[in-house]
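Record type: monomer structure entry
Structure origin: computed from sequence
Chain ID: A
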Amino acid sequence: MSATLNPFFRPDGIAVIGASRDPHKLGYGVVRNLKEHGYREPVYPVNPTAMEILGLTCYSSPSEVPDPVELAIVIVPAPAVSRTLEQCGERGIRHAVIISGGFSETGKEGEQREEELKKIARKWDMRIIGPNCIGTIDTHTPVNTTFVTGMPETGDIGFCSQSGAMVAAVIDWARGAGVGFSRIASLGNQADVSETEIMEAMWQDRQTRVITAYIEGVSDGRAFLQTMRQASMDKPVVALKGGRGESGARAVASHTGALAGSAEAYDAAFRKCGIQQADSMEEMFDRARALAWQPLPAGRRIAVLTNAGGPAILAVDALEAAGLELAPLSDSTRAFLRSRLPGAASVGNPVDVLAGSGPGTYALALDALLSDDTVDAVAVIQAPQDWFLPESLAEVIGEVAGVHDKPVVASIMGKASVDKALAMLHKRRIPNVSFPERLASVMSALAERREWLDRVQDAPEALPDMRTNASPKPESERPSQKQAGTPSPSHAETPSPSHASFPGEDSWRALLQDYGVELPPEREAGSPEQAVEAAEEIGWPVALKLMSDDVTHKTEMGGVKLHLADGQALQEAWNELETSAARNEVDMRGALVQKMAAECQEVIVGIRRDPQFGPLVLFGTGGTEVELLRDVATAIAPLSEREAARLIDATLAGRRMQGWRGKPAADRRAVIRCLVAMGKLAADHPEIEELEINPLCVMAGNGGAWAVDVRGSCARISSS
């Protein structure tokens, strides 16, 4: 796929259509950048009213441009872009960057113009970046097709963005920060080339070591997942997602016409394919530099080396909040430091060499810490002082770090006095952050990358008792009575008609059993007498639940009666259900008599189909607290057992399962099996839009877990 995108970054000849002699116009800026920043192939300005621009011969139309020419940069008014693109196709130019705006980002008329561009591109087998974009940069070619003043240094970080303003800001920031980039691409409206394709091109680029992206939406969620999971196995990927909040999502739609999916779905998608998610542009590039420049740590044990207590405290607080640990330091390391540091220095962790210590003291302490087997990485902090130059410290940090295979991240604090030190650190490939609390994010990035690579070979496990040919039955084919523990027949042999109504709760319960999800012992009853008989059979106490296809949340209308211990209580409960059904004008077709679980923890397990990324699995605190606490974590289906375990650990419900306020630990293994089963079910049945178990009652010890209440919805089931 990405091989066809090479001319956007390594073109053999460029036509600038809409080139201008006016230094204040974009068409001038593009020609200027191509000339000033070292592009070595031919540049052909296209302007019918000019003879030459910046010493380059002008041409009146694309048809007059000589060979070689692989790429067109289009900067003409929106109504003229279609004709210009047609001329490029006739000329044989098969790649175009359309900088012009006035398309889908502006409304209906713009959308029609953009559709016309797509038709022309298909006609000529042409690839288009844009419209409404900034352009592309490859610092190694070198080529700069943007109109933005300046060019980043040559480097190994790739960056693509669905916001042109972000690209312009990053170009200017990179020049001031001394951060090098390999490739930069502004995607605009993505009429043709998508974010996935550009990121794949950066993955396959040998000069790019880390991929970064500002993403507002993705064009094809499943393709994004598949491609980026493969890319992440080879190169780190860090993304900043715009439009995570409700207001932000609305802004995205009006900004580029991209459809922003739910924040939870994007979080789950990024985790699934190994993309680290940043909370700011600053954090994204902090992480990218570390991932590009430093080795990965063996674990999460960090040593802090400082010359001041306050900055070290900030760093330690941030490290612990990020789930990192302070390395314990070995006795031999402490003894070595104690014998060589000033008497008042601290040889614990943080190691404080005090303000009077210079680069030589830092060097021996850093070498000792990196040589300690209890240390996985070192954060070096230097608060400003006036008796040695910061660049002398930067030099020794680089020298010492260079002889060890452990990550080192620096925080030489300040701005006005540290430019030379930063340049030296960058040359030595040591990332630096201005303030020590930012060290935590950088160290986390390295640890997360190591951990993801260690588990990336996870594959979803099939459970031995799954019968995955089952399908949810339509209402017309539901069994009249369901007995717990009795295997459900396969439904695949009887295809459902396309006009069948959505399945009812008993059909969902049968489907869950086919996937190995346990249900409590239960019986359906059509009368109070049958209910008492059922309760006697399955054992008291029981719950009595209204059976009606008109009700989703039975508890809210008084349709659930719990802890019924005898026949009289059950008879009274039945009467109350009938009264409640009549009052709420719903059809009561009987009641479900269900064995009450012993003391258990109530959790919610569900699946939901996201329009971008497909099936999601949800887990969290269940029962009546589900909407109050909103304690839910989400993952992309299907799940491996390790993914299911991480889903549990991400919630308060998961922490409660370990034993909470004197209560015994719940059956974690049963919940893992249920989550894996639900992920497999979701992947097997694309017709299911939503399926929820609330609560899943999780018993103590190895007592198992019961799906107590189930509801769902699906698309109409086709007879084909």
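Annotation 1: The chain has a mean pLDDT of 89.
Annotation 2: The radius of gyration is 32 Å.
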